[in-house]
């Protein structure tokens, strides 16, 4: 169970502690933040409501610990990361239980997230040793007008303190995707977990604690974003911010100052279906892409743009599959579980009601009980409906019928988002032309959008983000280039 066994020390009565200077602590505020179970709508957990003064102290510790950590050999950093990965995977059950109860993720998917996170940490350790173990050697005479009098040595050095802010939907995986690159690169790490998902993150951080990382190198601050959010992101000790979430990221980017930013801020991922597509394959991918984890994924299929000539057949195939989706509690591994909060459910309902008022065809009856919304396919959606443009982050999927490929591309590109998209066709030449025309960070051909495998580059255009993720890209973003130039008194050439 969560908070028991090796995790006993992270819990103080009914309230989980925060992590600073290698210790689990209670906040001087004496206050806590409640975490509501999305399925039961009752308080499941409580975490510390940390203060700005505690943030200050953590930042000071992180800055100091980073100086020593940067001098730690790469092999040693990698060794500790491998150890943390093993501990995380060995203790997947209590962490998965936390995911089930605080974000209503199906039990099997929760276990998968923890195991995947352990694999990501280990892969990052290996990749970091390779990337950071190499430098460049440049010779001055390769540039016109120069003799060989200068040897230029370049290497990658850490930025300093990295602030990591993961989202609720993958709190463990998207936390370690920031933590592991930061640590292997020689940075210290301050984690601000989402409220929904905080307890899962605290358990994960304890695995790093048990692995034996130096005190102060890793910290986990919990609390209300309204009280410590801006204070964290604008703190002068922060040298890099890696954020995954929504519109808040745009606000952070405007306030952060001259530091590297890595941000993924959501998407309205379009699925363009051509007339020659394998419609059974399309239907399966629409179900997987649009409804897994109740559609609460940045890379979920958010709008289907299908050629009119095959639209009726595709809609019938998708309807048949929607009817087979199970709806209920996450403990029972149902396909559709409660969305994360009442406010989220209300927002989704608002999009549905707008579509209803404007004449969309409901392929299923709209049904909601609390935060649980039954899967819904909306056909004959038009561009004047909110659902055609806004990101529902729930199990509701709009279908727009198009008369040409250009119409589909134009709809995709008119969005303020540009995370991912997909195109289904048997003609690879058409697929490549459409991929080039789509203004998104990634285009999947004959498969639903997806973040991963975790070493693949992952990035968004427009309001979908800044910078690129993936193991290699994250390590590179969390380092900077250091150059040393050796100046020779006379030109020197190796004669072989």
Automatic annotation (TrEMBL):
Listed CDD domains: ALDH_F11_NP-GAPDH (cd07082)
Recorded catalytic activity of this chain's protein: D-glyceraldehyde 3-phosphate + NADP(+) + H2O = (2R)-3-phosphoglycerate + NADPH + 2 H(+)
Cross-referenced PROSITE patterns: ALDEHYDE_DEHYDR_CYS (PS00070), ALDEHYDE_DEHYDR_GLU (PS00687)
Gene Ontology CC annotation, any one: cytoplasm
Residue ranges of domain Aldehyde dehydrogenase in the record: 24-483
Active-site residues, as the UniProt record annotates them: 264
Keywords: Cytoplasm, NADP, Oxidoreductase
Major place of residence: cytoplasm
GO MF annotation, one: lactaldehyde dehydrogenase (NAD+) activity
Keyword Cytoplasm part of the UniProt annotation: yes
Pfam families: Aldedh
InterPro entries attached to this UniProt entry: Ald_DH/histidinol_DH, Ald_DH_C, Ald_DH_CS_CYS, Ald_DH_CS_GLU, Ald_DH_N, Aldehyde_DH_dom, ALDH-related_metabolic_enz
Enzyme Commission identifier(s): 1.2.1.9
Places the protein is found: Cytoplasm
Enzyme class: oxidoreductase
Claim: Transcription is one of the keywords in the record: no
Family: Belongs to the aldehyde dehydrogenase family.
Name listed for the protein in its UniProt record: NADP-dependent glyceraldehyde-3-phosphate dehydrogenase
Taxonomic source organism: Brassica oleracea var. oleracea
């Amino acid at each position: 169970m969560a908070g028991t066994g090796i995790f006993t020390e992270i819990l103080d009565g009914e309230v989980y502690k925060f992590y600073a200077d290698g210790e689990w602590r209670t906040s001087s505020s004496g206050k806590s933040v409640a975490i509501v179970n999305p399925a039961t709508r009752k308080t499941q957990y409580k975490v510390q409501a940390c203060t700005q003064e505690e943030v200050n102290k953590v930042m000071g510790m992180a800055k100091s610990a980073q100086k020593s950590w940067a001098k730690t050999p790469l092999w040693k950093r990698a060794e500790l990361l491998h150890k943390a990965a093993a501990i995380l995977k060995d203790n997947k059950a209590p962490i998965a239980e936390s995911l089930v109860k605080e974000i209503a993720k199906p039990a099997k998917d929760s276990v998968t997230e923890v195991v995947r996170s352990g694999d990501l940490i280990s892969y990052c350790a290996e990749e970091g040793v390779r990337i950071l173990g190499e430098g460049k050697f440049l010779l001055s005479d390769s540039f016109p007008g120069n003799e060989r009098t200068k040897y230029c040595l370049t290497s990658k050095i850490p930025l300093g303190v990295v602030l990591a802010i993961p989202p609720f939907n993958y709190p463990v995986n998207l936390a370690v995707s920031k933590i592991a690159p930061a640590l292997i690169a020689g940075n210290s790490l301050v984690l601000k977990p989402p409220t929904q998902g905080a307890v899962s993150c605290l358990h994960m951080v304890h695995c790093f604690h048990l692995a034996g990382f130096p005190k102060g190198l890793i910290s986990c601050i919990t609390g209300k974003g309204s009280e410590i959010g801006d204070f964290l992101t604008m703190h002068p000790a922060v040298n890099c911010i890696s954020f995954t979430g929504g519109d808040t990221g745009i606000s952070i980017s405007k306030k952060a100052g001259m530091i590297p930013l890595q941000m993924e801020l959501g998407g309205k991922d379009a699925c363009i279906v051509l007339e020659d597509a394998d419609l059974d394959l399309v239907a399966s991918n629409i179900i997987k892409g649009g409804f897994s984890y109740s559609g609460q994924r940045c890379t979920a299929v958010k709008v289907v743009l299908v050629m009119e000539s095959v639209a009726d057949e595709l809609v019938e195939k998708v309807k048949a599959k929607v009817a087979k989706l199970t709806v209920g509690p996450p403990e029972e591994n149902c396909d559709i579980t409660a969305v994360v909060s009442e406010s989220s459910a209300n927002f989704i309902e608002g999009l549905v009601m707008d579509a209803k008022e404007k004449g969309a065809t409901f392929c299923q009856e709209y049904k909601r009980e609390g935060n649980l919304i039954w899967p819904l396919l909306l056909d004959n959606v038009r561009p004047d409906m909110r659902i055609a443009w806004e990101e529902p982050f729930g199990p509701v999927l709009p279908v727009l019928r198009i008369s040409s490929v250009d119409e589909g591309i134009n709809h995709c590109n008119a969005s303020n988002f540009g995370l991912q998209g997909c195109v289904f066709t048997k003609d690879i030449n058409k697929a490549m032309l459409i991929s080039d025309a789509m203004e998104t960070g990634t285009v999947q051909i004959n498969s639903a959008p997806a973040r991963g495998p975790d070493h693949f580059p992952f990035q968004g255009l427009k309001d979908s983000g800044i910078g690129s993720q993936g193991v290699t890209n994250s390590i590179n973003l969390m380092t900077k280039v250091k150059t040393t130039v050796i100046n020779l008194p006379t030109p020197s050439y190796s004669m072989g």
